[in-house]
Every structure is written in structure tokens, then in C-alpha cells.
Amino acid sequence: MSDRVIAGIIIVSLTLAGFLYFTQINPVFSIKTPDPNTIPVGNPKVDKTLAWKATIQPYKKFRTVILLNNTTEAWLRENNIPYQRKGEVIPYVVAELNFSQIQEISQKPIEFIEEDREVYLIENSEIQLPNIRYRLQEAGYTEAQRQISLPIVHYNNITGEGVVVAILDTGVNYKLPDLDDNYLGGYDFAYDDLDPNDLEGHGTTVAALLAGEGDDQFQGIAPNASYYAVKVLDDSGAGKLSDVLDGLDWAVQHNVSIVSMSYGQPVYSPAEHTAIQTLYNKGVILVAAAGNEGYDKLIYPAGYPEVVSVGAVNRYGEVASWSNKGAFLAAPGVEITILTRFGTTTTGSGTSYATPIVSGVVALMKQVNPNLNSANVKDALANSTDPIKDPDNRVVHGMINASKAVVEAGNVQLKEPQAPGISIDLKYALPIAGLTLLVYLIRRGEYGA
Fold this sequence. Notes:
The protein is of the alpha/beta class. The protein folds into 3 domains: 1-28; 33-116, 2-Layer Sandwich (Alpha-Beta Plaits), CATH 3.30.70; 120-410, 3-Layer(aba) Sandwich (Rossmann fold). The protein is built from 14 helices and 17 strands. Strands 8-9-7-11-13-14-15 form a 7-stranded parallel β-sheet, with helices on both faces. The longest helix is centred in the first third of the chain and has 23 residues, at 3-25. The model is unreliable at 19-37 and 126-138 (pLDDT under 50).
């Protein structure tokens, strides 16, 4: 046997011996699968994916969200529930736990443990266009705004006055002339600071579509509605479930009427659903994007039954093929005029752009009927949509119509705009008529009969 073969056998033997020592003998480094009797897989209080991850890596700390029945300090101490932060209104805590801690806490009187999974903004496509495009729209309204019969609503001084909306997104560039006056403040949960400024751009576009003031480049659906910028996604457009929960908890504490959500993720979350239900039960109206993946089902939070889920249609009322199936209603969201975080106009597509259009219309509805709440807003919306072209049945109802929705919500009558005319004081009427006749006779004499 050659020296090379002998050396190889020695190396393999030493490697195997080291592996057995660190994995089977030394308990500090053991990576053996935990006792089957203690594996949380199948435990109804533990998310299946988190359970398997913790089983495979029992010493790793996983960032988790724990849904509770009680979040008082005394109860948390009594039950030895560790946490980094907790909800004030929504019953959850955020904690880093390993396998044994997950197993221990799952035996306590809690509701559910899940991983603090990622959420993301709903991607859109944009086409850069000159600023003049928006200015050339008829009577200052974009094509999408005319498509939902918005001008007549504004003509009747229904502009969202007195309604407060929380925009959960990448923040807002609230210093833009079209977004500064309606800004009430906010919070940055992505970076845990007081400034929800938007460096990604998505949230600014959403805010302008909803509540742009029209002072410079862009007027939104509800130009007099007030808004909070709640930054739950970072500057790359990604975020965590815990940040979303913090944002929803913050919004309900600030007594908002509407929450607009143009983000999502594909997995049902008991903690997020509980948060949605908490706001819904307090009368808050929740609006969310259906998603742009072309799925046969909605992403979340649009997929929760308490939410008004929004799909996208083009200028011809055709549902976009990429708009996820199951949306409650639709709004223009294909190549519509939008505002960027730099204060310029462009066009973009996506259900995340259709969503603030619906949120804005709901703000108009709330102005005419302040008692409108989450329980009855869906009925009013469902009874006031326009027909759409939807061969794949991706949308439950039709396209939102602002004027019909306002009438349905508030039992109001809208006055039609009057055609412009010329008003003349009667005391000047006779002299003007005489002068007109004189000019006619002179010209008749000059050029013949």
C-alpha cells in the first residue's frame, strides 16, 4: 500500500472522528435531531416552516412574532415571555428564540408563534415621460381620474376634507409641494426613527395618487385628505412582518379612518390577520393591493376577508393579466400618470398604484358619510362599480366609480358642472345690442347685401 493511500486513509479517519465528537459526543456542539417527543412540528401553536427550521438548527436564534391573548407587562413576566418589543393595541411581541424556547413558550397560554418573515413592496413598471403630459390632461385631471368619474365629485367640493389616512409603505417625500400641507407626521419602523422620508420612491407615488394637493405637479383623488406616512419598508422596498405589525399598531393608536397598503407577501400570517381584525373591529377601513404576480389567489394582506383588495384595469376597462385573482374590485392601474419622489411626473403600472385610487375614493365617501366604517364600506363599493372586461374572472366586482360610490355612501345628489357661458348685466344689454346692430349695418353697407 503506497504512502499516499495510507495518508488518505488517516485523513478520512481523523475527519470522521472529529465529526462524531462534535456531533454525537460533545453536547455543546451537538446537532443531533431533537427528541421526537419534543419536536414542535405538528404543534398547532407553531408555524410549520419555523418548526422545521428550529428542529434542524436547534441552537440558532430565530426572530419570531408571538401572538398572545395578553400583552401586559405583569403577564409577560409571570409567564417568562422574552421579547424585544410589543404591540400596544395589537396583542403580539417580537422575540429571538431557539428550539427549546419555542417548545417551552408553545406550552404557555399563547395563540401562535411564527417567524418574522419578509414583506415587500409590489413592484411596478414605469415609463419616463415629459412633465407636460399631466398638464395636457383635460381640465387638470389625469385619464385614470376621468375614467372613475372623479371631476364631478370635486366639482361638488367633495375632496376628502377631514379624513385621516395612514399610508404604510416606503415612507413619503413629504417636503414636495404636492404633499407637504396634508402631511400629519409619521414614523419610520424600518430604521426606528421619527423621520419617514422616502428614498425608494414607491410610497411617495402612492401618497400623491391618494392625497396629492395639486399645488405643483399633481392632484390626487382626495386632495384635502390628511395622511400619516408610516414607513414599514426600507429603502430597498423590503421589510419585516414585525415592522408591519408595529405600523398597524401605531396607526390604530392615531385614530386613522383608512389604512392604505401597497405591499404584501404570499403566506397567511395569524399575527397579521389578528392585527387586521383589530383595526377592522375598530371601524378602520383597510385597502390593499391584490398583487402583480398573475397568481390565482391574492397575496396578503389583500387576502384577508376584512380587507378591500384592489386589482388593476387599463384605460379600456380590461383587467390586467398580471393582476392576482380574487380582488374585491378594480381601479385604473395600467400606464397611469403618477408622481415620483423627485416631484416629476411619469407613468407606471401595478395594483399598488390602483390601491391608493380606491383609498382616495373611500376618503371621499367618508367625507360625505363620517359614520361609514369597515363593516359597510364594502357594500357601498360593491353597489357602485362600473362593468369591466374580465374573461378570467380575476375581480369579484367591477371598476370603482367615484361619483357612484359617493352617492351610495352618503345618499347625496351631485350637481353636474354647467357649461361656461357669458353673463351680462341687463343695464348694458341694450347698448351692446345697439352697437352690435350698428356694426352689422356698417359692414353690410361696405360689402353689399
